[in-house]
Specification:
alpha/beta, Rossmann fold, six-stranded mixed beta sheet, four-stranded antiparallel beta sheet, 12 strands, about 30% strand, globular, binds adenosine-5'-diphosphate, binds magnesium ion, Fe-S cluster assembly ATPase SufC
């Protein structure tokens, strides 16, 4: 299995001229699970979007290297081909494109021309993944995310992750909108991918609960667009017990969001 390293160095990102990320430095290697925790509005999704190359998020300085290659110089599709994957907090609906067709195109977009996955093999893999995620088989024939419940959208993101087999995955709040049963199914699927591959993962969440199911190796807290604390699972446990207030007191700040002070 290949070893991959994603190095984020002093990353500054602006949205509509306002600086949201103010110097994020983080390295994720194959086999490592990093959790980024933080209250709402602290820049978590902005980090995910900048990694994947969303055009609204302007990187003003810093770098993101995947195995030494500058990701910031790659187009969005090149980033996916290079092995990066994002499970989005708010997956978009695409009318007219079935989930199945979307998945197959995504897989083929990452393969060389002439080496496309056969329809038979694709269906076999997709059916296996649908079973594992306890997703109704009919969903594959519905338009992507259209009319899906919050929980179905999240399962569909993990379905993609499973089939695309990325080197490094960013999971943005995959726990939001999931009831406890769905959370367990989604977490089990992620843990299975973790066992069977050497994927590296950045798990974004604002609740500690998810981390009871997917245990991170490292935990980072983000506030005001910066990583303000890093540690192991004990840090997540303290956040579960005491919330985020004590960190704000330690930092001497009142507002943890990127807020108006940017
Ligand atoms: P989190 O995911 O931690 O809740 P976000 O990264 O989504 O936080 O947002 C951080 C800040 O950036 C917020 O103040 C938010 O309003 C702003 N922001 C993020 N994305 C956009 C956008 N596309 N347009 C305008 N403002 C944005
Ligand atoms: Mg977010």
């Amino acid at each position: 299995m290949s070893t991959n390293t994603l190095e984020i160095k002093d990353l500054h990102v602006s949205v509509e001229g306002k600086e949201i990320l103010k110097g994020i430095t983080l390295t994720i290697k194959s086999g490592e699970f990093h959790a980024i925790m933080g209250p709402n509005g602290t820049g978590k999704s902005t980090l995910a979007s900048a990694i994947m190359g969303h055009p609204s998020y302007e990187v003003t300085s810093g770098s993101i290297l995947l195995n030494g290659e500058e990701v910031l110089e790659m187009e969005v599709d090149e980033r996916a081909r290079a092995g990066l994957f994002l499970a989005m907090q708010y997956p978009s609906e695409i009318s007219g494109v079935t989930t199945s067709d979307f998945l197959r195109s995504s897989i083929n977009a990452r393969r060389e021309e002439g080496d496309e996955i056969s329809l038979m093999k694709f269906i076999k893999e997709m059916d296996g993944a649908l079973d594992e995620l306890e997703i109704d088989k009919n969903m594959a024939q519905r338009y992507l995310n259209e009319g899906f419940s919050g929980g179905e959208k999240k399962r569909n993101e993990i379905l993609q992750m499973k089939l695309l087999n990325p080197a490094i995955a960013v999971l943005d709040e995959i726990d939001s909108g999931l009831d406890i049963d769905a959370l367990r199914i989604v977490s089990d699927a992620v843990n299975k991918i973790r066992e069977e591959s050497n994927i590296g993962c950045l798990i974004i969440t604002h609740y500690q609960r998810l981390l009871n199911y997917i245990e991170p190796d490292y935990v980072h807290v983000i506030m005001q667009g910066r990583i303000v604390k890093s540690g192991g699972v004990e840090l997540a446990e303290r956040l579960e017990k005491d919330g985020y207030e004590w960190i704000k007191e330690e930092l001497g700040i009142e507002d943890e969001t990127v807020g108006q002070n940017a």
